[in-house]
C-alpha cells in the first residue's frame, strides 16, 4: 500500500536530547495492521552505543548516585502525572506500532502511570537493616548495618509486545534506585520509548540518566550486553535470546523475564461463567502475544461440556479488526511471518490428531482466535511457547493429574486456578511450578507491585517495582568497632 500519510522521524535519545545516528542508518517502523510505514527511526552505530553508555556512566557518578531520594521521587511522580495527561497519545502510539487494540493500549498506559507512581513511593523507602552483630560470640563492642547502593549503568533490552509498560517496569525502578539506564527497545516498536524519554526529560530527569539506542539485537543489543561499563542487564524476551545474553554478559548481574506456556485449571466446583470470561481474555488479549497468555486450559471432565459451551460462545463473539477501532477485541499479530508460523503449528497439531473447535485459519498478519482439543503433550502448540491466539483445552480427572499436566513443561511463569474450595486453592498454589499463581483469576493478570518472574526456563530474578529495585541495587555492609 503506498504511503500517503506523514511519516515521523525519530533520532536516538542520548544525553537528554535527540541525536542522528553517527552511521546515518535508519529503520522503518511499520503499522502491523495496515502495513504502512509510520516512522523512520535512527539506528545506533557502535559510536552511538559507546556515547550512550559513556553518558550514562558520567551522569551516574556526577549526579544520580548523589541525588536525594525525595528529589528522585518528585521526578517520578511528575512523570506518572504527565504520562497520564498524554495517555491518549501514548495509547495511539502503542496501537500504531504494535497493532494492539486501543482499549488494551489504554490499559497498558494506565499501568505505566501506576508503575511510575509506585516507583516514586518506593524511591523514599529503599532501606537497609541493622545486623545483629552480638549473635556471634566474641564480636565485642561492634555495630553493623546494611545499606542499599545503586549499581551504576543498567542495560535494558525489551520485546515488542508491551512497548511502554515493559520498558517502564525496568526504567522507573532503575531510576528510583538512583541508577542510570541505556535502553535498547524492540526494533519493531521503539516509538513509545522515545516518547517516554521526552517525558522524563520534561519532568526534570538529569540529562544522561535515560538513553535510548535503537537497532537490532544482534548488533546494538550485543554491544550493550558485552560492554564492561554496564553493571547489569535487565532483559525481557524469548528464551534463546535470554540464554545467549546470559552467556555473553560476563560478570554482570542479569535478570531474565522469558517465555511460558501458562496452564490455567478449571476445577469441578469453579464458577464456570466467570472462568470462561477470564480465560477468553487470557487466551486472546493482544492476539495471544503475551508471555503469560493462557496457552493450556485444563478442565475437570465433569464440567467440560458446560465450560466449552460458555467459552466457545465468548470466543466466537470476539470482534477482529482495526486496532484503532473502539470495538475491536483482537487485532493482527506483529508480522505475517508470525501468523504463518502460528498456522504451521496448528496444521502440524491437526496432522498429529488435534481437533479444531474454533478458528484454525488466518489471513496475512491476522490469525483467527483458535481453540484446539485432543492435543498431546509433545505437540508444539502444547509444549512450546505458542505466542499466538491459540489455546488448547485439556481434560483432567483428579487434582493430582491436573498438577502433573500443568507441571509437564519446561516453563513456569504464572498459572491460574478456578475453584471455590480453599483447600483445593492451597493445594494448587503449593504444587504448581510457577513464579506466581492466581486463584480465581487467570495467568494473564499481572499486578504491578507484586513480585513477577519465572522458574525453570521462564527466567531469573523478579520484577514488580520494589523487587526490581532490590535487583537493581546492591548491599553494602558498614561495621563500627567500639568501645562505645
Ligand atoms: P526477542 O527475544 O526476539 O527480542 C527481545 C529483545 O531482545 C529485542 O529488543 C531484540 O532486539 C533483542 N535481542 C535479540 N537478539 C539479541 C541478542 N543476541 N543480544 C541482545 N539482544 C537481543 O523477543 P520478542 O519477539 O520481541 O518478544 C517475544 C518474547 O518475549 C516471547 O518469548 C515472550 O514470552 C517474551 N516476553 C516475556 C515477558 C516476561 O515478562 N516474562 C514479557 C513479554 C514478553
The percent range for strand residues is: 15-25%
Number of strands: 23
Largest sheet: 7 strands, mixed
Low-confidence stretches: none
**Class by SSE composition:** alpha/beta
Helix content: 25-40%
Discrete helix count: 15
Rg on CA atoms, Å: 24 Å
As an assembly, this protein is single chain
Strand order of the largest sheet: 15-18-19-14-13-20-21
The small-molecule ligands in this entry are: nicotinamide-adenine-dinucleotide
**C-alpha end-to-end distance:** 79 Å
Morphology: globular
Overall mean pLDDT stands at 97
Description:
- By secondary structure, this protein is of the alpha/beta class.
- It is built from 15 helices and 23 strands.
- The strands form six sheets. The protein has a seven-stranded mixed β-sheet with strand order 15-18-19-14-13-20-21, sandwiched between helices. The protein has a six-stranded mixed β-sheet with strand order 10-9-8-11-12-22, sandwiched between helices.
- α6 links the parallel β9 and β10.
- The longest helix is centred in the first third of the chain and has 22 residues.
- The protein is globular.
- The mean pLDDT is 97.
- Nicotinamide-adenine-dinucleotide binds next to α7 and α8.
Topology, element by element:
Elements: E1 8-10, E2 12-14, E3 17-19, E4 26-30, E5 37-42, H1 46-62, H2 69-85, H3 87-98, H4 102-123, E6 129-131, E7 142-150, E8 153-157, H5 165-176, E9 180-184, H6 191-202, E10 210-212, H7 217-226, E11 230-236, H8 239-248, E12 253-257, E13 263-266, H9 272-284, E14 296-300, H10 304-316, H11 336-351, E15 355-358, E16 362-363, E17 366-367, E18 370-373, H12 380-383, E19 390-396, H13 399-407, E20 414-418, H14 422-431, E21 436-439, E22 459-460, H15 465-471, E23 473-481
Parallel strand pairs: 1-5, 8-9, 8-11, 9-10, 11-12, 13-14, 13-20, 14-19, 18-19, 20-21
Antiparallel strand pairs: 2-3, 4-5, 6-7, 7-23, 12-22, 15-18, 16-17
Helix pairs in contact: 2-4, 2-6, 3-4, 4-5, 5-15, 9-10
The chain binds nicotinamide-adenine-dinucleotide (NAD).
